[in-house]
Amino acid sequence: MGTSTSSSKKKVQVWKRALLHFLLCFLLGALTGLTPMSTMIFSTNLAHNSKPKTRQDFAFELKSIPTNAQQDFSQVGNRGRLIETIRIEGSQFREKGVESEEKETEKSSAQTDAFSLFSTGVRTLDFVPRKLLIVVTPTYNHPFQAMYLNRLAHTLRLVPPPLLWIVVEMPTQSMETAEFLRKTGVMYRHLVCDKNLTDVNDRTAHQRNVALGHIEQHQLEGIVYFADDNNVYTLELFEQLREIKRFGTWPVGMLAQNESRAVLEGPVCNSTKVIGWHTNEGSKRLCRFHVNMSGFAFNSTILWDPQKWGRPTLEHIRQLDTGKDGLQDTQFIEQVIEDESQMEGMAYGCSKIMVWDLHLEASGLTYPSGWIVEKLDVILSLKKHK
């Protein structure tokens, strides 16, 4: 009986001893894990320094080269991304304490400068919308139609948007022109002037009136410009159009009837103020304004918001077909403005030619005899010659 009691006591002592060892190991591991690394490094350094140095120790510490980095946020990408450029002015080895202090100073100042530059850049990058350009082009079926429209379309494609090309045909809308306009890549509207040709003296006047009625009906806001397809235009012209507030004008270069010399028609300006006129045609000496139809543009709100500009009459502004030859341009302008004080001289003080009115085709040119120009969709059977 005594032997069994002593053996059970020994077993309990063994379990207690094992449990005590387990708790001690657990506490030691927990304390080791919670000990900061700096304390361990410090103790390691103490142990290392206490050792006698029998040979020279090699330091494998990689020292960084200090650089003066300047961040330039003035360069901004087309998609609004900020481009960071770094310029290295020089480098030299310094003591470790001085190097760390300068790094902290440069880091804080760079962050402050970057934030101030970034906020300034955001404030200066305000989006400025461009004015809508409403380009009106009358066209009809003639031998040079495709060439003229292609040339003008290639010019308009290079103009920054927004731009609306209003093409007006007469008397019907042709499938060829509609197909051509769809492939130009220019925003357009294809209109038709269905007026009877027997009652028309100048077809282009009625075609422009259709475009003016469309602009007035839909209250399109922008700068209206009559661009005939036979003229040649510079891209600089369309940049100048967006600077017009009410009515802008500029000189137009033209070839004389014999094509032996160039003539100039348009305003004479002192800066942006119109003080006179260039004219070389005797038929236009009685005109109030000596301006070519491609030598002016105006704000479209004049058509549908006359009260904004203080117009005395509420009548529709249209080009007249009853006037004498050469007087239609000035009669139209007289409906838009009162005098030269309401004009803006463009093209750098009216000193630059940005439009050329060229009539290079022969007068009275027609299709060769025997050509079929109507009902081209009809399929004719071929006859076999014997």
TrEMBL record:
<dbReference type="GO" id="GO:0000139">
    <property type="term" value="C:Golgi membrane"/>
</dbReference>
<keyword id="KW-0735">Signal-anchor</keyword>
<keyword id="KW-1133">Transmembrane helix</keyword>
<dbReference type="GO" id="GO:0010417">
    <property type="term" value="P:glucuronoxylan biosynthetic process"/>
</dbReference>
<comment type="function">
    <text>Involved in the synthesis of glucuronoxylan hemicellulose in secondary cell walls.</text>
</comment>
<keyword id="KW-0325">Glycoprotein</keyword>
<keyword id="KW-0812">Transmembrane</keyword>
<feature type="site" description="Interaction with galactose moiety of substrate glycoprotein">
    <location>
        <position position="265"/>
    </location>
</feature>
<comment type="similarity">
    <text>Belongs to the glycosyltransferase 43 family.</text>
</comment>
<protein>
    <recommendedName>
        <fullName>Glycosyltransferases</fullName>
        <ecNumber>2.4.-.-</ecNumber>
    </recommendedName>
</protein>
<dbReference type="InterPro" id="IPR005027">
    <property type="entry name" value="Glyco_trans_43"/>
</dbReference>
<keyword id="KW-0328">Glycosyltransferase</keyword>
<keyword id="KW-0472">Membrane</keyword>
<dbReference type="Pfam" id="PF03360">
    <property type="entry name" value="Glyco_transf_43"/>
</dbReference>
<keyword id="KW-0808">Transferase</keyword>
<dbReference type="GO" id="GO:0071555">
    <property type="term" value="P:cell wall organization"/>
</dbReference>
<dbReference type="GO" id="GO:0042285">
    <property type="term" value="F:xylosyltransferase activity"/>
</dbReference>
<dbReference type="InterPro" id="IPR029044">
    <property type="entry name" value="Nucleotide-diphossugar_trans"/>
</dbReference>
<keyword id="KW-0333">Golgi apparatus</keyword>
<dbReference type="GO" id="GO:0015018">
    <property type="term" value="F:galactosylgalactosylxylosylprotein 3-beta-glucuronosyltransferase activity"/>
</dbReference>
<dbReference type="GO" id="GO:0009834">
    <property type="term" value="P:plant-type secondary cell wall biogenesis"/>
</dbReference>
<keyword id="KW-0961">Cell wall biogenesis/degradation</keyword>
